[in-house]
Write a structure and sequence with these properties.
Order of helices and strands: EEHHEHEHHEEH
CATH class: Alpha Beta
Number of helices: 6
Strand order of the largest sheet: 1-3-2-4-6-5
CATH superfamily: Uracil-DNA glycosylase-like domain
Largest sheet: 6 strands, mixed
Helix content: 25-40%
Structural class: alpha/beta
Oligomer: single chain
CATH architecture: 3-Layer(aba) Sandwich
Number of domains: 1
Shape: globular
Strand content: 15-25%
Amino acid sequence: MYIPDQINCVKFPCKDVHHAGYLIPDVSIDPQQVSMLMISESAPQDSRDYYYAGGEAAYERTTLQAFEDAGVEFDTFDQLADMGIYLTSAVKCSKTGYGIKAGTVQQCSLILEEEIGLFPNIKVIMLMGDVAIKAINYIARKAGLDRLIPADSTYKIRSGEYYFREIRLFPSYMQVGPSFGIEKSKRKMIAEDIQNALEYIRYLSQQQ
């Protein structure tokens, strides 16, 4: 399945993002094999830094570093897909400023909801940062559910158990962007969250 053929934004209603920076993961992937989604904040300013861009893409490089911190080393980014891991962003356009308005996150959550629905065997969704957490809460509210992730500091909520239907949610910090290489304490927590997510998937596979 080629992802850009499956989801898209037609009207581009949001005002606080660069529409020219609109990006959907440019990858073909077997939807049946995907067991984990990692959702970060937004598309980067430079498309060459996005997931599945290849080369020295910043999003790929720091994500591989996050997995290495968690004790899982890959030679190439493609090996994440082989392991059943798919990466995307909650907001599909690049930001114009530091933050992203709630209305933009809500609007883009409609696309994210379709994207999540492409994968029937998801066991885990990792929510990498506040925007991803807000997006999943918007999706839940649209489905008539209560807030899935409480409104609190990430370090306080990351140890809780949260589910969207039967999918386990792991709130964490962003594994992309300049702060990843600076804030060592957050890198450690991201690594722990990745470890816990992978252990949960292994546990489920052993129960089958």
